[in-house]
Amino acid sequence: MRPIQKSNKLAEVCYEIRGPVPEKARQMEEEGHKITKLNIGNLAVFGFDPPDEIVQDMKMNLSNAAGYTDSKGMFAPRKAVMHYTQGKNIRGVSIDDIYLGNGASELIVMSMNALLNNGDEVLVPAPDYPLWTAAVSLSGGKPVHYICDEQQDWYPDIEDMRSKITPNTRAIVVINPNNPTGALYPVELLLQIIELARQHDLIIYADEIYDKVLYDGAEHVSIASLADDILFVTFNGLSKNYRACGYRSGWMVVSGEKSHAKDYIEGLNMLASMRLCANAPGQFAIQTALGGYQSIDDLVGPGGRLLKQRDLAYKLLTEIPGVSVVKPKAALYMFPRLDPKIYPIADDQQFAYELLAETKVLIVQGSGFNWIAPDHFRVVFLPNSDDMVEAFGRMAKFMESYRKRHGASF
Hints:
Elements: H1 20-30, E1 36-37, H2 52-61, H3 75-87, E2 98-101, H4 103-115, E3 121-126, H5 130-138, E4 142-149, E5 155-156, H6 158-163, E6 169-175, H7 187-200, E7 203-207, E8 231-237, E9 250-256, H8 262-274, H9 280-291, H10 296-300, H11 305-318, E10 323-324, E11 333-334, E12 337-338, H12 348-359, E13 361-362, E14 364-365, E15 377-380, H13 385-405
Helix pairs in contact: 2-9, 3-9, 4-5, 4-8, 11-13
Family: Belongs to the class-I pyridoxal-phosphate-dependent aminotransferase family.
Enzyme class: transferase
Cofactor: pyridoxal 5'-phosphate
């Protein structure tokens, strides 16, 4: 029989967070091994539960959740999102500008599907959250990666971004707070990105899913609040701020200069209608989440579990010879660097395989985030402190063995 091949649209699509190395970890679990999973920001499995009020409201409304909703979502949760955008100082947003989705991920793919023709280019950060690169590729576009500078707190390199704009460039993706680096961008930098978009008539796609997961008194400014003469599409949801990953409840907000984007918005409406609607139970959670007590503040503030675990993970990683980390100001991740003189890694996926096999600790290699060299990896700092001490202790012993095997010195 003739082999059945996957679509060639998938040729440039990858998602290493759930890729070959995690698949190996799954096989090891089936063989009876206990794997410490530092590869994905799945908060529930580490004991970070959603607020009780959200859970109770979903339960109370399940009897009303069996039917299709409006293709963009129910009125009440969209109204709550509208009020949220007002609180973020994003001007001119109406109910019609808000789309609810099965997580922000669905809406990211939808936004690219509605925009891109074959060969269109989108500027995406390196390192990035790999769904963005995949969504551009799957939509027929070409992801062009601009560099974020580790020496400058992982801020985007504006000159590199500028140099990569061509007549085919349609948009700039800004992930702020950033996954995988934990960077939080200052207003001055956001204004520079806006000016580039203004000069070249580009859309700005703002992934702000971690906008409440902030440390050390940091404040997040939504880039869409800083201008109204270009088009912004902003993404957020319940997965991280409200520890509700599995509820698949996210939203997309179109703002700024919308009058010249009527055809694009019509495309978004078509795609929203084609999927009929987002899941109704998840929609019922939004209004309660946005309007109630913001329990994330207790986790990231002084004495909070996430803050303590961030500080512990930073200490444990930077104590390993040849490992350096920019301390994250936000989000749930660290993106450590392995000094190439000490760790001569040619294939960072193979490095992740070896680490998994010897330590039962699962990470994601830096190339999985479209980083340019095999010298980084990403970890979450979600396990409790005792488990992190154990996991990073095993990692440190592996690193010592790796240095000896490869004849590196420090």
